[in-house]
Amino acid sequence: MMINLTDMKTVRSILGRHGFHFSKKLGQNFLIDPSVCPRIAEEGNAAAGYGVLEIGPGIGTLTQQLALRAEKVTSVELDQRLLPILEETVGEFENLHILHGDILQFDVPQLLEQEFAGLHVAVCANLPYYITTPILMHLLESGANIDSITVMVQKEVAEKLQAPVGTRNSGAITAAVNYYGTVEMLFTVPRDSFLPPPNVDSAVIRIDVQKRYADQTRDPQHFFSMLKHGFSQRRKTLVNALSATMHYEKPVLLEALHAMELPETVRMENLTMEQLVELSNRLSGATAEKV
User: At which positions is S-adenosyl-L-methionine bound (predicted)?
Assistant: First the structure.
């Protein structure tokens, strides 16, 4: 019989029996709202024909729902103290493989080939908030064949990720994620859905990986460097920001803006995704210090 991991009394009993204490350093907050994990699994492509990579299974609340639906689930857990708990809570699932380690240290394409050969692949995770961006970019930049990434993040981060590129709420991470796919905020999750409750509300987003701008970008390394440096000086005009950080001569930058029919006072945050790609393509062959 499957253990009810959304019952607080049951969860506290399991954690107490294993002598487990929450780690603030690892950003541990376990989902206890019974409606959330089934919905993440349903909307995160956990289904027949799919292998699901789960990052940070915790005590296994989401893991259960993924394993009930997907062909196979591989869960990567950093905290060794949780391994015996997971053996108790989800050890019954024959289609589940739990790995101990840091996902940032894994070769993602190799891991997926090893675990999910012949299957479509989706990623589902309730990520520690302090490491959301590094994990997302590690997955996307790996070039792994992933259909979708469905993750729980801070509501504020979700709003930034799904903001249209070129609007005030967007940033470098918005453009970086949009380079690889489309972002949709699926639903919000109040803070009292967790044990212990975090200080912020959360939201679940899905990135449908399409790599839609990869073929249009002449030099991806330059594109991401331009994003990093241009958005680091948001209050400056694009010309002043890139001349200061990437050491372009201002006439080179102005020539590119004129060719794109953009005003000389435009800021990086005002450019759409298409304009960012075009600007990078125009500048990537120009002379600038390699940053």
Answer: 29, 31, 56, 77, 102, 126
* Geometric angle at alpha carbon 163, from 158 and 165, rounded to 5°: 135
Domains of the chain as residue ranges with CATH: 8-212 (3.40.50.150), 216-283 (1.10.8.100)
Is 126 marked within a binding site? Answer: yes
Distance CA 226, CA 199 (A): 33
Confidence of residue 291 (pLDDT cuts 50, 70, 90): very low
Strands (E) in 113-211, as ranges, are 120-126, 148-154, 181-189, 194-195, 202-209
DSSP 136-158: HHHHHHTT---SEEEEEEEHHHH
User: Would you say 31 is a known binding-site residue?
Assistant: yes
Q: Is 102 annotated as a binding residue?
A: yes
pTM over 0.85: yes
For 229-238, the pLDDT digits (tens) are 999 988 899 9
